[in-house]
Structure formats: structure tokens, C-alpha cells
Amino acid sequence: MASLLSSTLTLSPHDKVNRVSVSTTATVIPSTRNCRPFVRNDRSHGHYLLTKAKMSVEADVLVKDSIGIESVNDNKDFGVVSMHHVGILCENFERSLDFYQNVLGLKINEARPHDKLPYRGAWLWVGSEMIHLMELPNPDPLTGRPEHGGRDRHTCIAIRDVSKLKAILDKAGVPYTLSRSGRPAIFTRDPDANALEFTQVDG
């Protein structure tokens, strides 16, 4: 229940009014931390109470609730279907094509225009998606990269049998590292130090 507080504020003799009574209603007696001195002509004339405006939490919640999750998702839905291809840069097209075709066994998508671009390259099938191999200058350094490809930017390819790929890489003399988490996955690099991950999936 609110209590009635009455306080008397005395002004200086220079004022026409000698005494002013101020009555206010409050639920809590304010502390001196919320008060500041009232000074005029270098003389103190008492204190005045500082108050802070409160922001309505209920109003803020209502505004946020008015923007539903579904409407936000609808605004960002521009029809993502799948990953179409990943572009990989190489210094020597023949050397890289030999690796991707003869070591990894990827096939060229002959339907893609190899001769209509101002650089040499090939589109390689990775399931229903592709790798676009491009013979272009690589802005990334070839040395000083992490030994484990999982700690570098990399392309991940889902496969059925990691142990079989491991045997293929061993036979070809291609170095690799296994997943640090213990899951069936293997990391290697192509001739241009582009990191590749092969993770085993079921089905």
C-alpha cells in the first residue's frame, strides 16, 4: 500500500517565498543516490529527485512476438535446392586431372562447356553434384598449411567405404590423415594442396 510522504523544502532569504511544502506519493523512500543538489547563483537551495523512465518489457515482448518465426523464414526462402558444384583451382590441369580421374576415379561431365571459358578446366561428377577444376593462379599459399586437412578450408565428399579409399591412397603414395574424432573419415590433399575430406555414410 502506497504511503504518503510529506517533506518541507526551505529556500534562501533572497527568494520571495520563504517556505514551500512538497507532497508526493511513493512506494519506496528514495535513497540519496537518486538525489542531486539544486544550486543557483553559487548557493545550494536543497535537493531535487532524479527519476528514470522505465521501458515497458511487456510492450517489447509484444513487438518481438508480432514478428513470427514463420514469416522470417518465408522472407529468407529463395528456393535452395542443393550444392551444385565446388570450384577448385589448379596450377597444372593435366596433373590435377590425372589425380581426380585416375586416383579418385571421378568422371568428366561432358555436357559442361570446357572450351567456352577463358581458362582450361573440367567439370567432374561427384554423385549428382560436381567439382569444377580450373587452371587459374591460386591466391592461397601452398606451404605452411595445416597437416590435417580438417583444420583447413576443405571440400567434403560422402563415400561408402573409407577403408577402400585408404587402400587406394596407400597404393598411389598419397599422404592422408584420419579423422581426429574417430569417425570414419579421411583427409588428403590434391597436387595443389587443396584439402579434401571423404566421410563414410550409410545407405
Summarize the structure.
The chain is an alpha+beta fold and 203 residues long.
Key traits:
single chain; about 200 residues; alpha+beta; 4-stranded mixed sheet; 3-stranded mixed sheet; 4 helices; globular; VOC_core; Glyas_Bleomycin-R_OHBP_Dase
Describe the structure.
InterPro entries: Glyas_Bleomycin-R_OHBP_Dase (IPR029068), Glyas_Fos-R_dOase_dom (IPR004360), GlyoxalaseI/FosfomycinResist (IPR050383), VOC_core (IPR037523). This protein is an alpha+beta fold. The chain has a domain of 116 residues: 2,3-Dihydroxybiphenyl 1,2-Dioxygenase, domain 1 (Roll), CATH 3.10.180. Helices cover 20% and strands 33% of the residues. The N terminus is likely disordered.
Report how far apart the termini are: 70 Å
Strands ordered across the widest β-sheet: 8-11-10-9
CATH level 1 name of the domain at 85-200: Alpha Beta
Mean pLDDT across the residues is: 77
| SS content category | alpha+beta
Q: Which residues form runs of ≥5 with pLDDT under 50?
A: 1-32, 47-59
Number of helical runs?
4
- According to DSSP, the number of beta strands is 11
Return the CATH architecture of the domain at 85-200: Roll
In one word, what is the shape? globular
Approximately how much helix is present in the residues?
10-25%
**According to CATH, what is the topology of the domain at 85-200?**
2,3-Dihydroxybiphenyl 1,2-Dioxygenase, domain 1
Strand content: 25-35%
CATH 4th-level superfamily of the domain at 85-200: 2,3-Dihydroxybiphenyl 1,2-Dioxygenase, domain 1
Query: Largest beta sheet, briefly?
Result: 4 strands, mixed
Helix and strand run:
EEEEHHEHEEEHEEE
Gyration radius, rounded: 37 Å
Which assembly state applies to the chains in this document?
single chain
